[in-house]
Protein backbone atom coordinates (compact mmCIF):
# COMPACT_ATOMS: atom_id res chain seq x y z
CA UNK A 1 0.00 0.00 0.00
CA UNK A 2 2.95 2.34 0.17
CA UNK A 3 5.94 3.58 -1.72
CA UNK A 4 8.26 2.67 1.16
CA UNK A 5 10.93 -0.04 0.89
CA UNK A 6 13.43 -1.43 3.38
CA UNK A 7 17.18 -1.13 3.12
CA UNK A 8 19.64 -3.98 3.83
CA UNK A 9 19.47 -3.37 7.58
CA UNK A 10 15.71 -3.49 7.58
CA UNK A 11 15.17 0.24 8.07
CA UNK A 12 12.28 1.74 6.11
CA UNK A 13 13.24 3.93 3.14
CA UNK A 14 11.11 6.41 1.30
CA UNK A 15 12.22 8.50 -1.66
CA UNK A 16 15.74 7.17 -1.25
CA UNK A 17 16.08 8.30 2.39
CA UNK A 18 15.84 6.38 5.63
CA UNK A 19 12.76 7.27 7.59
CA UNK A 20 14.85 7.31 10.75
CA UNK A 21 17.18 9.95 9.29
CA UNK A 22 14.22 12.02 8.13
CA UNK A 23 12.62 11.87 11.54
CA UNK A 24 15.87 12.87 13.24
CA UNK A 25 16.32 15.79 10.86
CA UNK A 26 12.77 17.01 10.55
CA UNK A 27 10.83 15.66 13.52
CA UNK A 28 7.63 13.75 13.92
CA UNK A 29 4.85 13.26 13.35
CA UNK A 30 5.37 14.16 9.70
CA UNK A 31 3.71 13.21 6.47
CA UNK A 32 6.53 11.92 4.28
CA UNK A 33 5.78 12.32 0.59
CA UNK A 34 7.57 10.23 -2.00
CA UNK A 35 7.59 12.73 -4.85
CA UNK A 36 8.62 10.26 -7.52
CA UNK A 37 5.79 7.95 -6.48
CA UNK A 38 3.30 10.83 -6.68
CA UNK A 39 4.63 11.78 -10.11
CA UNK A 40 4.22 8.19 -11.28
CA UNK A 41 0.63 8.01 -10.06
CA UNK A 42 -0.24 11.34 -11.70
CA UNK A 43 1.33 10.13 -14.93
CA UNK A 44 -0.66 6.89 -14.85
CA UNK A 45 -3.89 8.86 -14.40
CA UNK A 46 -3.01 11.42 -17.05
CA UNK A 47 -2.15 8.76 -19.59
CA UNK A 48 -5.24 6.68 -18.79
CA UNK A 49 -7.30 9.72 -19.78
CA UNK A 50 -5.07 10.85 -22.68
CA UNK A 51 -5.89 10.96 -26.35
CA UNK A 52 -3.76 7.94 -27.27
CA UNK A 53 -5.66 5.71 -24.85
CA UNK A 54 -9.13 6.73 -26.01
CA UNK A 55 -8.27 6.79 -29.73
CA UNK A 56 -8.14 3.02 -29.50
CA UNK A 57 -11.88 3.15 -28.77
CA UNK A 58 -12.56 5.67 -31.50
CA UNK A 59 -13.03 8.32 -28.84
CA UNK A 60 -11.48 11.66 -27.96
CA UNK A 61 -9.31 11.86 -24.82
CA UNK A 62 -10.67 13.39 -21.66
CA UNK A 63 -8.80 14.58 -18.61
CA UNK A 64 -8.02 13.59 -15.06
CA UNK A 65 -8.50 16.47 -12.61
CA UNK A 66 -6.63 16.05 -9.34
CA UNK A 67 -9.08 16.50 -6.45
CA UNK A 68 -7.19 19.06 -4.39
CA UNK A 69 -9.21 18.26 -1.25
CA UNK A 70 -7.07 15.14 -0.79
CA UNK A 71 -3.96 17.28 -0.18
CA UNK A 72 -3.43 20.71 -1.65
CA UNK A 73 -0.08 22.47 -1.60
CA UNK A 74 2.01 24.13 -4.28
CA UNK A 75 4.43 21.26 -4.71
CA UNK A 76 1.70 18.64 -5.14
CA UNK A 77 -0.25 20.84 -7.55
CA UNK A 78 2.91 21.43 -9.59
CA UNK A 79 3.88 17.76 -9.73
CA UNK A 80 0.44 16.58 -10.84
CA UNK A 81 -0.16 19.37 -13.35
CA UNK A 82 3.30 18.87 -14.85
CA UNK A 83 2.16 15.32 -15.61
CA UNK A 84 -0.91 16.61 -17.42
CA UNK A 85 -3.59 16.49 -14.76
CA UNK A 86 -6.04 19.33 -14.24
CA UNK A 87 -7.10 20.41 -10.74
CA UNK A 88 -10.52 20.10 -9.13
CA UNK A 89 -11.14 22.66 -6.39
CA UNK A 90 -14.01 22.67 -3.91
CA UNK A 91 -13.44 25.90 -2.01
CA UNK A 92 -11.98 29.38 -2.31
CA UNK A 93 -8.82 28.11 -0.64
CA UNK A 94 -8.34 25.18 -2.98
CA UNK A 95 -9.09 27.33 -6.00
CA UNK A 96 -6.67 30.00 -4.82
CA UNK A 97 -3.92 27.49 -4.14
CA UNK A 98 -4.36 25.81 -7.52
CA UNK A 99 -4.14 29.15 -9.34
CA UNK A 100 -1.30 30.52 -7.21
CA UNK A 101 0.67 27.30 -7.69
CA UNK A 102 0.46 27.98 -11.42
CA UNK A 103 -2.26 25.58 -12.58
CA UNK A 104 -3.61 26.60 -15.98
CA UNK A 105 -7.12 28.01 -15.31
CA UNK A 106 -8.26 26.24 -18.46
CA UNK A 107 -7.59 22.99 -16.58
CA UNK A 108 -9.25 23.88 -13.28
CA UNK A 109 -12.77 23.04 -12.13
CA UNK A 110 -14.86 24.24 -9.20
CA UNK A 111 -17.28 22.21 -7.10
CA UNK A 112 -19.42 22.98 -4.08
CA UNK A 113 -22.97 22.55 -2.87
CA UNK A 114 -22.96 26.02 -1.34
CA UNK A 115 -20.54 28.09 -3.36
CA UNK A 116 -19.64 31.45 -1.88
CA UNK A 117 -19.93 34.61 -3.96
CA UNK A 118 -16.15 34.96 -3.72
CA UNK A 119 -15.65 31.49 -5.19
CA UNK A 120 -17.98 32.17 -8.09
CA UNK A 121 -16.34 35.54 -8.75
CA UNK A 122 -12.82 34.12 -8.70
CA UNK A 123 -13.80 31.19 -10.93
CA UNK A 124 -15.29 33.57 -13.48
CA UNK A 125 -12.51 36.15 -13.25
CA UNK A 126 -9.84 33.49 -13.69
CA UNK A 127 -11.71 31.87 -16.58
CA UNK A 128 -11.56 28.32 -15.23
CA UNK A 129 -12.48 25.29 -17.32
CA UNK A 130 -15.78 24.58 -15.64
CA UNK A 131 -17.99 25.36 -12.72
CA UNK A 132 -19.92 22.28 -11.63
CA UNK A 133 -23.45 23.44 -10.84
CA UNK A 134 -24.93 21.72 -7.82
CA UNK A 135 -28.43 23.23 -7.55
CA UNK A 136 -31.08 25.31 -9.31
CA UNK A 137 -30.50 28.51 -7.30
CA UNK A 138 -26.85 28.35 -8.27
CA UNK A 139 -27.75 28.76 -11.95
CA UNK A 140 -29.23 32.18 -11.30
CA UNK A 141 -26.29 33.22 -9.15
CA UNK A 142 -23.80 32.13 -11.81
CA UNK A 143 -25.78 33.81 -14.56
CA UNK A 144 -25.89 37.08 -12.62
CA UNK A 145 -22.15 36.96 -11.88
CA UNK A 146 -21.34 36.14 -15.51
CA UNK A 147 -23.63 38.89 -16.77
CA UNK A 148 -21.97 41.42 -14.45
CA UNK A 149 -18.65 40.65 -16.09
CA UNK A 150 -20.13 40.17 -19.54
CA UNK A 151 -18.46 36.80 -20.05
CA UNK A 152 -19.60 33.27 -20.85
CA UNK A 153 -19.10 30.57 -18.24
CA UNK A 154 -18.67 26.87 -19.03
CA UNK A 155 -20.73 24.79 -16.62
CA UNK A 156 -21.31 21.15 -15.84
CA UNK A 157 -24.32 19.80 -13.97
CA UNK A 158 -23.67 17.58 -10.98
CA UNK A 159 -26.13 14.74 -11.24
CA UNK A 160 -27.54 12.55 -8.54
CA UNK A 161 -27.86 9.19 -10.22
CA UNK A 162 -29.12 7.20 -7.25
CA UNK A 163 -26.03 4.97 -7.30
CA UNK A 164 -24.99 4.16 -3.75
CA UNK A 165 -21.27 3.47 -3.55
CA UNK A 166 -18.31 4.27 -1.36
CA UNK A 167 -16.29 3.04 1.58
CA UNK A 168 -18.90 4.25 4.08
CA UNK A 169 -22.02 6.34 4.46
CA UNK A 170 -20.23 9.68 4.91
CA UNK A 171 -18.44 9.40 1.60
CA UNK A 172 -21.22 7.97 -0.59
CA UNK A 173 -22.42 10.93 -2.60
CA UNK A 174 -24.94 9.98 -5.23
CA UNK A 175 -27.86 8.27 -3.52
CA UNK A 176 -30.99 10.39 -3.34
CA UNK A 177 -31.02 11.38 0.32
CA UNK A 178 -27.83 13.44 0.51
CA UNK A 179 -26.94 17.03 -0.25
CA UNK A 180 -24.98 16.87 -3.52
CA UNK A 181 -26.22 17.38 -7.04
CA UNK A 182 -29.61 17.36 -8.70
CA UNK A 183 -31.55 14.18 -9.32
CA UNK A 184 -32.09 12.64 -12.71
CA UNK A 185 -35.07 10.85 -11.17
CA UNK A 186 -37.28 13.65 -9.86
CA UNK A 187 -37.01 16.22 -12.62
CA UNK A 188 -34.54 18.36 -10.65
CA UNK A 189 -31.65 17.81 -13.02
CA UNK A 190 -33.70 18.59 -16.12
CA UNK A 191 -34.93 21.78 -14.51
CA UNK A 192 -31.32 22.87 -14.04
CA UNK A 193 -30.51 22.02 -17.65
CA UNK A 194 -33.46 24.12 -18.80
CA UNK A 195 -32.35 27.04 -16.66
CA UNK A 196 -28.85 26.84 -18.13
CA UNK A 197 -30.26 26.61 -21.66
CA UNK A 198 -32.37 29.70 -20.99
CA UNK A 199 -29.50 31.68 -19.51
CA UNK A 200 -27.60 34.19 -21.57
CA UNK A 201 -24.09 33.47 -20.32
CA UNK A 202 -23.85 29.84 -19.20
CA UNK A 203 -22.69 27.15 -21.59
CA UNK A 204 -23.47 23.52 -20.73
CA UNK A 205 -20.20 21.69 -21.37
CA UNK A 206 -20.68 18.55 -19.33
CA UNK A 207 -22.57 16.23 -17.04
CA UNK A 208 -20.97 15.21 -13.78
CA UNK A 209 -21.48 12.41 -11.30
CA UNK A 210 -19.24 11.69 -8.31
CA UNK A 211 -20.65 8.55 -6.73
CA UNK A 212 -18.45 8.31 -3.67
CA UNK A 213 -14.99 7.53 -2.41
CA UNK A 214 -12.81 4.50 -1.57
CA UNK A 215 -14.72 2.37 -4.09
CA UNK A 216 -13.65 -1.12 -5.11
CA UNK A 217 -13.97 -2.27 -8.70
CA UNK A 218 -15.55 -0.57 -11.70
CA UNK A 219 -19.16 -1.79 -11.44
CA UNK A 220 -20.62 1.25 -9.70
CA UNK A 221 -18.81 3.64 -12.07
CA UNK A 222 -20.17 1.77 -15.10
CA UNK A 223 -23.69 1.79 -13.68
CA UNK A 224 -23.41 5.54 -13.01
CA UNK A 225 -22.06 6.18 -16.52
CA UNK A 226 -25.10 4.45 -18.04
CA UNK A 227 -27.48 6.65 -16.07
CA UNK A 228 -25.55 9.80 -16.99
CA UNK A 229 -25.61 8.82 -20.67
CA UNK A 230 -29.33 8.10 -20.57
CA UNK A 231 -29.88 11.53 -19.09
CA UNK A 232 -27.68 12.96 -21.85
CA UNK A 233 -30.04 11.30 -24.32
CA UNK A 234 -33.02 12.94 -22.64
CA UNK A 235 -31.32 16.33 -22.95
CA UNK A 236 -30.73 15.67 -26.63
CA UNK A 237 -34.40 14.83 -27.16
CA UNK A 238 -35.57 17.94 -25.34
CA UNK A 239 -32.93 20.46 -26.43
CA UNK A 240 -31.40 18.97 -29.56
CA UNK A 241 -27.85 19.06 -28.18
CA UNK A 242 -25.51 16.28 -27.20
CA UNK A 243 -23.54 17.42 -24.15
CA UNK A 244 -19.87 17.03 -25.14
CA UNK A 245 -18.34 15.71 -21.90
CA UNK A 246 -19.19 13.43 -18.99
CA UNK A 247 -17.19 13.38 -15.76
CA UNK A 248 -17.45 10.36 -13.51
CA UNK A 249 -15.80 12.05 -10.52
CA UNK A 250 -13.21 10.51 -8.25
CA UNK A 251 -13.55 7.59 -5.92
CA UNK A 252 -11.16 4.83 -6.87
CA UNK A 253 -10.10 3.08 -3.67
CA UNK A 254 -6.59 2.33 -2.48
CA UNK A 255 -5.08 -0.29 -0.18
CA UNK A 256 -4.40 0.91 3.36
CA UNK A 257 -2.94 -2.39 4.46
CA UNK A 258 -2.07 -5.80 3.09
CA UNK A 259 -5.55 -6.95 4.09
CA UNK A 260 -7.20 -4.64 1.54
CA UNK A 261 -7.93 -5.88 -1.97
CA UNK A 262 -5.56 -4.94 -4.79
CA UNK A 263 -6.90 -1.60 -5.99
CA UNK A 264 -8.43 -1.14 -9.40
CA UNK A 265 -5.98 0.65 -11.69
CA UNK A 266 -6.77 3.89 -13.50
CA UNK A 267 -6.32 2.08 -16.83
CA UNK A 268 -8.87 -0.57 -15.81
CA UNK A 269 -11.38 2.12 -14.91
CA UNK A 270 -10.66 4.04 -18.13
CA UNK A 271 -11.13 0.87 -20.19
CA UNK A 272 -14.44 0.08 -18.49
CA UNK A 273 -15.66 3.64 -19.01
CA UNK A 274 -14.55 3.68 -22.64
CA UNK A 275 -16.45 0.45 -23.29
CA UNK A 276 -19.69 1.46 -21.61
CA UNK A 277 -19.69 4.96 -23.11
CA UNK A 278 -19.00 3.65 -26.60
CA UNK A 279 -21.61 0.94 -26.34
CA UNK A 280 -24.29 3.29 -25.03
CA UNK A 281 -23.55 5.93 -27.66
CA UNK A 282 -23.77 3.35 -30.46
CA UNK A 283 -27.16 2.25 -29.06
CA UNK A 284 -28.27 5.88 -28.87
CA UNK A 285 -26.80 6.78 -32.25
CA UNK A 286 -25.16 9.72 -30.51
CA UNK A 287 -21.81 11.46 -30.85
CA UNK A 288 -19.38 10.13 -28.26
CA UNK A 289 -18.60 12.51 -25.39
CA UNK A 290 -15.19 13.07 -23.86
CA UNK A 291 -14.83 11.36 -20.51
CA UNK A 292 -13.14 12.92 -17.50
CA UNK A 293 -12.48 11.90 -13.93
CA UNK A 294 -11.46 13.59 -10.65
CA UNK A 295 -9.28 11.27 -8.59
CA UNK A 296 -7.78 12.45 -5.32
CA UNK A 297 -7.06 9.56 -2.96
CA UNK A 298 -5.59 7.26 -5.61
CA UNK A 299 -3.17 9.99 -6.73
CA UNK A 300 -1.73 11.14 -3.41
CA UNK A 301 -2.84 8.54 -0.84
CA UNK A 302 -0.25 5.81 -1.34
CA UNK A 303 2.54 8.34 -1.99
CA UNK A 304 2.77 9.30 1.71
CA UNK A 305 3.48 7.62 4.99
CA UNK A 306 3.12 9.21 8.40
CA UNK A 307 6.08 8.73 10.68
CA UNK A 308 5.49 8.70 14.44
CA UNK A 309 7.77 8.22 17.41
CA UNK A 310 6.72 5.66 19.99
CA UNK A 311 6.26 6.98 23.53
CA UNK A 312 4.43 5.31 26.39
CA UNK A 313 3.73 1.58 26.26
CA UNK A 314 0.98 0.13 28.42
CA UNK A 315 -0.23 -3.45 28.69
CA UNK A 316 -3.93 -3.79 29.32
CA UNK A 317 -5.47 -7.05 30.49
CA UNK A 318 -8.42 -8.19 28.46
CA UNK A 319 -11.15 -10.61 29.40
CA UNK A 320 -9.98 -14.18 29.10
CA UNK A 321 -6.43 -13.40 30.14
CA UNK A 322 -5.22 -11.86 26.89
CA UNK A 323 -3.21 -8.67 26.90
CA UNK A 324 -3.36 -5.73 24.56
CA UNK A 325 -0.39 -3.43 24.35
CA UNK A 326 -1.32 0.21 23.93
CA UNK A 327 1.41 1.95 21.97
CA UNK A 328 1.17 5.72 22.26
CA UNK A 329 2.64 7.80 19.46
CA UNK A 330 3.40 11.50 19.20
CA UNK A 331 0.38 12.32 16.99
CA UNK A 332 -3.08 10.82 16.66
CA UNK A 333 -6.57 11.84 15.63
CA UNK A 334 -5.44 15.41 14.92
CA UNK A 335 -3.22 14.23 12.06
CA UNK A 336 -5.30 11.21 11.03
CA UNK A 337 -9.00 11.56 11.78
CA UNK A 338 -10.01 8.78 9.38
CA UNK A 339 -10.04 5.85 11.85
CA UNK A 340 -12.06 7.82 14.42
CA UNK A 341 -14.40 9.43 11.89
CA UNK A 342 -15.02 6.59 9.44
CA UNK A 343 -13.79 3.52 11.28
CA UNK A 344 -11.10 3.45 8.59
CA UNK A 345 -8.57 0.66 9.02
CA UNK A 346 -4.89 1.54 8.81
CA UNK A 347 -1.82 -0.40 9.68
CA UNK A 348 1.57 0.46 11.15
CA UNK A 349 5.03 -0.94 10.75
CA UNK A 350 8.29 -0.58 12.65
CA UNK A 351 10.31 1.91 10.62
CA UNK A 352 13.73 2.43 12.20
CA UNK A 353 15.02 -1.13 12.39
CA UNK A 354 14.33 -4.67 11.33
CA UNK A 355 12.43 -7.12 13.46
CA UNK A 356 11.79 -10.80 12.98
CA UNK A 357 9.41 -10.97 15.93
CA UNK A 358 8.22 -12.28 18.27
CA UNK A 359 5.18 -10.08 17.95
CA UNK A 360 2.79 -8.53 20.39
CA UNK A 361 -0.82 -7.62 19.74
CA UNK A 362 -0.88 -3.83 19.76
CA UNK A 363 -3.22 -0.90 19.45
CA UNK A 364 -1.55 2.27 18.24
CA UNK A 365 -3.09 5.31 19.90
CA UNK A 366 -2.50 9.03 19.81
CA UNK A 367 -1.94 11.68 22.49
CA UNK A 368 -5.40 13.17 22.54
CA UNK A 369 -7.79 13.09 25.44
CA UNK A 370 -10.26 10.65 23.91
CA UNK A 371 -10.27 6.88 24.00
CA UNK A 372 -11.42 6.96 20.38
CA UNK A 373 -8.05 8.46 19.48
CA UNK A 374 -6.92 5.27 17.78
CA UNK A 375 -4.56 5.29 14.83
CA UNK A 376 -4.42 1.52 14.29
CA UNK A 377 -6.93 -0.64 16.10
CA UNK A 378 -5.13 -3.95 15.77
CA UNK A 379 -1.62 -4.65 14.62
CA UNK A 380 1.18 -7.04 15.48
CA UNK A 381 4.31 -5.12 16.36
CA UNK A 382 7.64 -6.42 17.67
CA UNK A 383 7.42 -7.51 21.30
CA UNK A 384 10.63 -5.58 21.99
CA UNK A 385 9.13 -2.28 20.73
CA UNK A 386 10.44 0.53 22.92
CA UNK A 387 10.04 4.27 23.38
CA UNK A 388 11.99 6.07 20.69
CA UNK A 389 11.22 3.47 18.01
CA UNK A 390 9.52 4.83 14.92
CA UNK A 391 6.30 3.65 13.37
CA UNK A 392 5.21 4.32 9.81
CA UNK A 393 1.54 4.36 8.91
CA UNK A 394 1.24 3.88 5.15
CA UNK A 395 -1.06 5.49 2.62
CA UNK A 396 -1.83 8.65 4.58
CA UNK A 397 -1.36 11.11 1.71
CA UNK A 398 -5.07 11.64 1.11
CA UNK A 399 -7.32 13.28 3.69
CA UNK A 400 -4.61 13.17 6.35
CA UNK A 401 -2.93 16.56 6.29
CA UNK A 402 -6.01 18.06 4.61
CA UNK A 403 -8.30 16.98 7.47
CA UNK A 404 -5.80 17.59 10.26
CA UNK A 405 -6.86 19.74 13.19
CA UNK A 406 -5.32 21.53 16.13
CA UNK A 407 -7.21 19.51 18.70
CA UNK A 408 -5.59 19.77 22.12
CA UNK A 409 -3.58 22.66 20.65
CA UNK A 410 -1.38 20.22 18.77
CA UNK A 411 0.39 21.80 15.84
CA UNK A 412 -0.33 20.45 12.39
CA UNK A 413 2.55 18.30 11.07
CA UNK A 414 4.32 19.27 7.88
CA UNK A 415 4.47 17.45 4.57
CA UNK A 416 8.06 16.47 3.85
CA UNK A 417 8.76 15.90 0.16
CA UNK A 418 11.54 13.41 -0.45
CA UNK A 419 13.16 12.60 -3.75
CA UNK A 420 16.49 10.97 -4.60
CA UNK A 421 17.35 10.95 -0.93
CA UNK A 422 16.90 14.71 -0.51
CA UNK A 423 14.13 16.13 1.68
CA UNK A 424 12.48 19.54 1.98
CA UNK A 425 9.19 20.76 3.36
CA UNK A 426 6.37 20.85 0.83
CA UNK A 427 4.40 22.33 3.72
CA UNK A 428 6.28 23.22 6.88
CA UNK A 429 4.89 22.08 10.22
CA UNK A 430 2.92 24.59 12.24
CA UNK A 431 4.59 26.03 15.30
CA UNK A 432 3.00 26.99 18.59
CA UNK A 433 3.77 30.61 17.67
CA UNK A 434 1.72 30.18 14.47
CA UNK A 435 -1.29 29.18 16.53
CA UNK A 436 -0.76 31.78 19.23
CA UNK A 437 -0.54 34.49 16.58
CA UNK A 438 -4.18 33.82 15.74
CA UNK A 439 -5.19 34.70 19.29
CA UNK A 440 -4.98 38.43 20.02
CA UNK A 441 -4.55 37.62 23.69
CA UNK A 442 -1.44 35.57 22.95
CA UNK A 443 0.05 36.96 19.76
CA UNK A 444 3.66 37.98 20.12
CA UNK A 445 4.03 36.65 23.69
CA UNK A 446 7.28 34.87 24.34
CA UNK A 447 6.93 31.17 24.98
CA UNK A 448 7.13 30.26 28.67
N1 LIG B 1 -14.76 14.80 -6.94
C1 LIG B 1 -15.67 15.16 -6.01
C2 LIG B 1 -16.80 15.98 -6.41
C3 LIG B 1 -15.50 14.76 -4.68
O1 LIG B 1 -16.40 15.11 -3.78
C4 LIG B 1 -14.39 13.96 -4.32
C5 LIG B 1 -14.19 13.52 -2.94
C6 LIG B 1 -13.46 13.62 -5.32
C7 LIG B 1 -13.69 14.05 -6.61
C8 LIG B 1 -12.22 12.81 -5.03
O2 LIG B 1 -12.53 11.53 -4.59
P1 LIG B 1 -11.38 10.47 -4.29
O3 LIG B 1 -10.75 10.07 -5.61
O4 LIG B 1 -10.38 11.11 -3.41
O5 LIG B 1 -12.09 9.34 -3.64
N2 LIG B 1 -12.41 12.36 3.69
C9 LIG B 1 -12.88 11.11 3.14
C10 LIG B 1 -13.06 11.19 1.65
C11 LIG B 1 -14.00 12.27 1.22
C12 LIG B 1 -14.13 12.38 -0.26
C13 LIG B 1 -14.84 13.65 -0.62
N3 LIG B 1 -14.97 13.87 -2.01
C14 LIG B 1 -11.91 10.01 3.53
O6 LIG B 1 -10.90 10.31 4.14
O7 LIG B 1 -12.16 8.85 3.24
UniProtKB/TrEMBL annotation:
<dbReference type="Pfam" id="PF02784">
    <property type="entry name" value="Orn_Arg_deC_N"/>
</dbReference>
<dbReference type="InterPro" id="IPR022653">
    <property type="entry name" value="De-COase2_pyr-phos_BS"/>
</dbReference>
<dbReference type="InterPro" id="IPR000183">
    <property type="entry name" value="Orn/DAP/Arg_de-COase"/>
</dbReference>
<protein>
    <recommendedName>
        <fullName>Diaminopimelate decarboxylase</fullName>
        <ecNumber>4.1.1.20</ecNumber>
    </recommendedName>
</protein>
<dbReference type="InterPro" id="IPR009006">
    <property type="entry name" value="Ala_racemase/Decarboxylase_C"/>
</dbReference>
<feature type="binding site">
    <location>
        <position position="342"/>
    </location>
    <ligand>
        <name>substrate</name>
    </ligand>
</feature>
<feature type="modified residue" description="N6-(pyridoxal phosphate)lysine">
    <location>
        <position position="69"/>
    </location>
</feature>
<dbReference type="InterPro" id="IPR022657">
    <property type="entry name" value="De-COase2_CS"/>
</dbReference>
<keyword id="KW-0663">Pyridoxal phosphate</keyword>
<keyword id="KW-0210">Decarboxylase</keyword>
<keyword id="KW-0456">Lyase</keyword>
<dbReference type="InterPro" id="IPR002986">
    <property type="entry name" value="DAP_deCOOHase_LysA"/>
</dbReference>
<comment type="similarity">
    <text>Belongs to the Orn/Lys/Arg decarboxylase class-II family. LysA subfamily.</text>
</comment>
<feature type="binding site">
    <location>
        <position position="399"/>
    </location>
    <ligand>
        <name>substrate</name>
    </ligand>
</feature>
<keyword id="KW-0457">Lysine biosynthesis</keyword>
<comment type="subunit">
    <text>Homodimer.</text>
</comment>
<keyword id="KW-0028">Amino-acid biosynthesis</keyword>
<dbReference type="InterPro" id="IPR022644">
    <property type="entry name" value="De-COase2_N"/>
</dbReference>
<comment type="pathway">
    <text>Amino-acid biosynthesis; L-lysine biosynthesis via DAP pathway; L-lysine from DL-2,6-diaminopimelate: step 1/1.</text>
</comment>
<feature type="binding site">
    <location>
        <position position="370"/>
    </location>
    <ligand>
        <name>substrate</name>
    </ligand>
</feature>
<feature type="binding site">
    <location>
        <position position="338"/>
    </location>
    <ligand>
        <name>substrate</name>
    </ligand>
</feature>
<feature type="binding site">
    <location>
        <position position="297"/>
    </location>
    <ligand>
        <name>substrate</name>
    </ligand>
</feature>
<comment type="function">
    <text>Specifically catalyzes the decarboxylation of meso-diaminopimelate (meso-DAP) to L-lysine.</text>
</comment>
<feature type="binding site">
    <location>
        <begin position="294"/>
        <end position="297"/>
    </location>
    <ligand>
        <name>pyridoxal 5'-phosphate</name>
    </ligand>
</feature>
<feature type="binding site">
    <location>
        <position position="399"/>
    </location>
    <ligand>
        <name>pyridoxal 5'-phosphate</name>
    </ligand>
</feature>
<dbReference type="GO" id="GO:0008836">
    <property type="term" value="F:diaminopimelate decarboxylase activity"/>
</dbReference>
<feature type="binding site">
    <location>
        <position position="251"/>
    </location>
    <ligand>
        <name>pyridoxal 5'-phosphate</name>
    </ligand>
</feature>
<dbReference type="InterPro" id="IPR029066">
    <property type="entry name" value="PLP-binding_barrel"/>
</dbReference>
<feature type="domain" description="Orn/DAP/Arg decarboxylase 2 N-terminal">
    <location>
        <begin position="62"/>
        <end position="299"/>
    </location>
</feature>
Amino acid sequence: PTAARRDRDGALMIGGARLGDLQRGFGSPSYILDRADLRGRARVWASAMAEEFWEGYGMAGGRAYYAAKALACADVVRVVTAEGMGVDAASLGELTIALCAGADPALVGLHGNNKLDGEIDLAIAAGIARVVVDSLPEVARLEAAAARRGVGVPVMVRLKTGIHAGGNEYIATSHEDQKFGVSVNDGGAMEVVRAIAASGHLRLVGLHNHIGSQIEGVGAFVAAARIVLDFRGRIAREHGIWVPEVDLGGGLGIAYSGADPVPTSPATLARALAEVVRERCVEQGSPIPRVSVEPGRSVIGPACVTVYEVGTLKDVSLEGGAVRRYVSVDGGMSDNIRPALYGAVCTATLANRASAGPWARCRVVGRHCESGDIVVRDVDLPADLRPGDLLAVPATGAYGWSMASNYNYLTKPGVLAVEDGAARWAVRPQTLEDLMDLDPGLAGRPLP
